[in-house]
Design a protein that fits this description.
Layout (H helix, E strand, L loop, with lengths): L10 H7 L7 H5 L22 E3 L27 E2 L8 E2 L2 H5 L6 E17 L4 E6 L2 E9 L5 E4 L2 E4 L15 E12 L6 E13 L39 H15 L8 H10 L17 E7 L22 E5 H7 L3 E2 L7 E4 L5 E4 L3 E3 L5 H15 L25 H14 L4 H14 L4 H4 L3 H6 L3
Helix pairs in contact: 7-8
Length: 463
């Protein structure tokens, strides 16, 4: 499901969702009056509807053409491409990067051919996925098996989704070649839009075997103690020294209240600071769930606003750099307001640049193993800072935050056990420390679970 406005990207998909089997994209290209109320509003998403394009590069560059050789065998172990359709001689070769660089005008007169890696799949019915290559990503909102999905009348191409994507056999991690049309969809109530491709597949090359779907450490059997290193040496937590349990939780809450002197503006402030707080190895902003440094992004409430008990909107925790993360719009949309937890049967996945995949279904979202700790430490921070369940001090930004409202668990204790397990399985890295230090320089406060991740065990380890 897509985030409010962003679910309306193609009239083709909208009509299909209402029961039709095919739809003509040309109608979408010639119409600007799309009713926002026609989307599925039952899903409350975790962020706003404003997208921004980041033109930087991917943290991890994967050369999918690399051939693996062995000293003891000359056998080529590179997966072979599986042909799906013959290539159309009229198609113009273009890179994903060049498609991303195109203007905000749809192109119905050129059939393009491009190749990339499938980063995530939101709908296996409609062929709704994110394609990545050369450090750039673009949304494919309509991919089918059949070349008949694209027809030409004179100089104009049109697309009809026949909902045959599942027949292609394409899964996350595959390298695929598609022939497609470039569409820039502008929302009816905004000057902003989103770049998309629609078309059919010509070939796929299977990704490397053994990639995970969801995580292997999602279960909670009492939680797990943190064993990673702690490098923080400052005096920010002097008043919490030697404390445990509720006394430690209360003191950390009071420290946060006393030290945060600045909340940035939700609209302009976060956009100003994200390029520094979330700067990646290649100089671009790191997208939270994908791990890439590119894409059409917006602001992700890691603890969704709709699950905050009315504690925040675009103020307090809702504009806290320690909490809000830049996220590819589509990934933000599929997260929505799903609780974090363990997913045993996934309806979709999001690949991460550092490896692994987040998995989700209609009610639950399980982060990739590579960011489980990041998620846990943000959730614990928001709870400690802004919940009225802890601390002796309060301000206008504190409210009725309950961890069981954002985490799947049979009890409050079980929720904290799962957070401790994720905190332990994915130790703090330098990137988190960078964000924490930057937020501290702007806001005056720190995330205690990044500086001292063992605080999670000291507070909730005896539940």
């Amino acid at each position: 499901m897509r985030h409010k406005k962003f679910m309306m990207v193609l009239v083709a998909a909208t009509i299909a969702l209402t029961g039709c089997t095919t739809s003509d994209i040309s109608a979408a290209l010639n119409s600007t009056a799309v009713d926002a109320t026609s989307t599925n509003t039952s899903e409350v998403t975790s962020d706003d509807n404003t997208g921004t394009t980041s033109g930087s590069t991917d943290i991890t560059s994967v050369d999918t053409s690399e051939v693996t050789t062995s000293e003891t065998s000359s056998e080529d172990t590179t997966p072979e491409a599986i042909k799906i359709n013959d290539e159309n001689s009229e198609a113009v070769e273009i890179t994903v990067a060049d498609l991303v660089a195109k203007s905000n005008t749809s192109d119905t007169t050129t059939l393009y051919r491009t190749t990339g890696v499938v980063e995530s799949i939101d709908s296996t019915e409609y062929g709704d996925l994110i394609l990545t290559a050369g450090g750039k990503s673009i949304l494919v909102y309509g991919l089918t098996k059949n070349t008949s999905a694209i027809t030409k009348d004179g100089s104009k191409y049109t697309f009809k989704n026949d909902k045959s994507f599942s027949e292609t056999g394409i899964v996350v991690g595959d390298t695929i070649t598609i022939e497609c049309l470039y569409v820039y969809y502008t929302f009816a109530d905004s000057t902003e839009g989103v770049q998309e491709l629609v078309g059919y597949a010509t070939s796929r090359t299977p990704g490397e075997p053994g990639s995970s779907t969801g995580g292997s450490t999602g279960g909670s059997t009492g939680g797990a103690d943190y064993t990673g290193s702690e490098v923080y040496q400052g005096d920010y937590y002097d008043s919490a020294e030697s404390l445990t349990g509720s006394a430690l939780a209360d003191t950390l809450h009071d420290i946060e209240i006393d030290t945060q002197y600045n909340w940035v503006d939700y609209s302009s402030g976060l956009r100003t600071h994200f390029p520094e707080s979330d700067k990646g190895a290649n100089g671009g902003m790191v997208m939270f769930y994908a791990g890439t440094e590119n894409g059409d992004w917006n602001r992700e409430h890691v603890w969704p606003q709709s699950l905050s008990g009315g504690t925040y909107g675009k103020n307090g925790a809702g504009c806290d750099i320690q909490h809000i993360r830049p996220t590819i719009m589509k990934n933000n949309s599929v997260r929505g307001n799903k609780k974090y937890g363990t997913v045993s049967s996934a309806s979709g996945t999001i690949g991460h640049a550092k490896g692994g995949q987040s998995a989700y279904n209609s009610s639950t979202f399980e982060p990739a193993d590579t960011i489980k700790g990041d998620v846990a430490r943000i959730i614990m921070y928001v709870y400690i800072h802004y919940s009225t369940e802890v601390g002796t001090k309060s301000d206008s930004y504190c409210g009725n935050l309950k961890v069981e409202n954002v985490m799947q668990g049979s009890s409050k204790a079980a929720c904290f056990d799962l957070l401790r397990t994720w905190n332990s399985s994915d130790p703090v890295d330098e990137y988190e420390r960078q964000r924490n230090n930057y937020a501290f320089s702007v806001q005056g406060n720190r995330n205690p679970f990044i500086d001292h991740p063992t605080y999670a065990d000291a507070i909730w380890g005896n539940n």
